[in-house]
Amino acid sequence: MTVEQDTRQIINHLLSTGSCGEAEIQKLYRLLCKQTHPDLTGKDGSQFLKVQQAFEQLQGNSSLSTSFPRLENFDPFQLLRDMGYELPLSPQASLYIALDRYLSLGLLSFKMRSKENLRNRNISVLRTVLFWAQQYDPAFIDIFLRLNRNIFQFSQSTQQMKNYTYGKKITLDGFRIFFEYQEMGREGSRKVCGEKLVLAGRIITLAVGASNPLVDFCSWALKEITLEPALILKGQTAQG
User: Fold this and answer.
1) Does 71 fall in a domain?
2) What whole-number distance in Å separates Cα of residue 19 and Cα of residue 91?
């Protein structure tokens, strides 16, 4: 089957049933991107942006994308043990560790979060973040939920898309240094982390607006580095 035939088959199914699952949404999105992406078609990218806009709206109407399914026998301490930390750890340190795992696994990407063969692992990480956020900073829960509902980022132009992608990369760099600061407490790491997160927030705001949850994610981390570092060291107990 060609990409066009695959796309037509999925669209016909959606029209006939009036509903779609998350896997179908993803497959249709990938197929339409192949048909419209400027790097693949040589065109200006206007159709690609329309695909993003349509799927942003579809994503917002999908209940599957706005919640994390429950897992049987969920253990919020398991991720900490798997990463080599001794318990007990403070809720602050536990949240940071869970976020470190979330980002290192690439779960900021909807494509990675929704991989069916990694479903239980991914949901476990997401739920671990939410559990420790509830213990340490319940206000972070809304930021995290919005971050994971933001599946398709809509931009007005190809340049804005590039800027958003660049801002996202700097965000990840900033959080990498954020975790270094939380482990070692070095002032130099705190300073560089702050500079990167401020820059990332500005770039993302210019590209897609201040309402993007990545901006709030950066702002939250900037607030956290004004506090005493958690001094998280593997193999050592950190109570709090």
Assistant:
1) no
2) 40
Query: Domain span at residue 60?
Result: 3-65
Partners of 118 in the β-ladder: none
Q: How many residues are there in the chain?
A: 240
Q: Judge whether 125 and 79 are in contact, CB under 8 Å.
A: yes
Number of compact structural domains in the chain: 2
Q: Which two tokens stand for residue 235?
A: 């193999």
Q: Do 84 and 202 reside in the same domain of the chain?
A: yes
**Is 234 part of any domain?**
no
Which of 39, 65, 91 is a domain's end point? Answer: 65
pLDDT tens-digit series, residues 226-236: 999 988 755 44
Please tell me the pTM assigned to this model.
Answer: 0.70
Encoded tokens for 106 = 């690439």
What is the distance between the alpha carbons of residues 239 and 152, in angstroms, rounded to a whole number? Answer: 39
CB 24 within 8 A of CB 10: yes
